[in-house]
DNA sequence: GATACAAGCTACAGCAGATAGAGGTTCAAG
DNA sequence: CTTGAACCTCTATCTGCTGTAGCTTGTATC
């Protein structure tokens, strides 16, 4: 039986985060000692590791929930899991595209400023007026 | 004098968001009509456009606050503004790097799955075990 | 068995950066 | 003067945690 701190150390997840995952139903409710402390099995550790690794790969908690459900039914087809992963890949690709456009603009404005007074600052000039930009960048940057 | 909806339309910012910017002190408190509705000058429109454009380029509201302060004092050196932009560029570059590593892993796991049962799904296999990954990807993916 | 103290517990607040809705009021055109 | 779109405030919600306060439990050592 593992204490929550052990799960925390072995998966690199903060203790509060593990409790949070339980609260939102991503982790099963843990068993408790007589005094009320959580105790876990190895399978709980595995589940937490799955969650953490999926998070590191950028999956949302909702997607992870689906993936865990699928993972619990080994006889099913994995088409669903694959499509979640493909969707995630697509999102990552879109984000990279957006960021590359931002990078281009930022690079240009930084390069073009001679570092004189604010009144002639190219950086601020571009920020004031999108017409100074070469690319479109709709939506809010992230 | 411009109503809030006009600012909203002309900058592509939701009305609630403009009020939110006022609440957090990013926009100045607007003047009001006798009946309590906000009314703006052209300079407020400019300020909002600056904020929105900066957001589109990925700057945080805190950075934008600094940039606006600088922009209001045209006689200063622009070194500060430039360094904020360089910091932003750096952040964007880091994010691109992380996302490219994620993309690589996602692409590989999607490609390697034959689409059979969950039990043999490569996607789920990788998620279960980071040892299957080729790259490191610490921190949580975004 | 007593004691110390690390590690656990709950409950709640807060972060960024908005966005949505309820329920009521004002403005401006016709 | 009436209509109705646009405005108002206030509160709640979202994602994914993280931090704090104040208290209790578990365990190692004496
Ligand atoms: Zn400059
Ligand atoms: Zn632009
Ligand atoms: Zn598969
Ligand atoms: Zn991995």
CATH topology of the largest domain in chain A: Multidrug-efflux Transporter Regulator, Chain: A, Domain 2
How many separate domains of chain A?
Answer: 2
Oligomer classification: homodimer
Q: Main beta sheet of chain A, described?
A: 3 strands, antiparallel
Q: Strand order, biggest sheet of chain A?
A: 1-3-2
What is the CATH architecture annotation of the largest domain in chain A? Orthogonal Bundle
Low-confidence stretches of chain A: none
Write the element-wise H/E pattern of chain A from the N-terminal end onward: EHHEEHHHH
SS-derived structural category of chain A: mainly alpha
- Taking all Cα atoms into account, the compactness measure Rg of chain A is 23 Å
Bound molecules: zinc ion
Give helix % range of chain A: 55-70%
Count of DSSP-assigned helices of chain A: 6
Largest interface: A-B, 60 and 60 residues
CATH class label of the largest domain in chain A: Mainly Alpha
- Beta fraction of the residues of chain A? under 5%
Overall pLDDT of chain A? 95
Number of strands of chain A: 3
From the spread of the alpha carbons, the general shape of chain A counts as: elongated
Coiled coil (chains A, B): 89-116
Keywords (chains A, B): Coiled coil, DNA-binding, Transcription, Transcription regulation
Pfam families (chains A, B): MerR, MerR-DNA-bind
Protein name (chains A, B): Cu(I)-responsive transcriptional regulator
């Amino acid at each position: 039986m593992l204490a929550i701190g052990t799960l925390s150390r072995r998966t690199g997840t903060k203790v509060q985060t593990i409790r949070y995952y339980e609260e939102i139903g991503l982790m099963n409710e843990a068993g408790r000692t007589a005094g009320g402390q959580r105790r876990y099995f190895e399978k709980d550790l595995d589940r937490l590791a799955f969650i953490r690794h999926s998070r590191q790969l950028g999956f949302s908690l909702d997607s992870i929930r689906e993936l865990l459900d699928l993972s619990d039914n080994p006889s099913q087809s994995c088409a669903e899991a694959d499509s979640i992963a493909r969707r995630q890949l697509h999102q990552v690709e879109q984000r990279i595209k957006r960021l590359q456009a931002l990078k281009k603009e930022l690079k240009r404005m930084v390069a073009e400023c001679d570092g004189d007074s604010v009144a002639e600052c190219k950086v601020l000039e571009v920020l004031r007026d999108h017409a100074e930009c070469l690319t479109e960048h709709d939506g809010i940057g992230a």
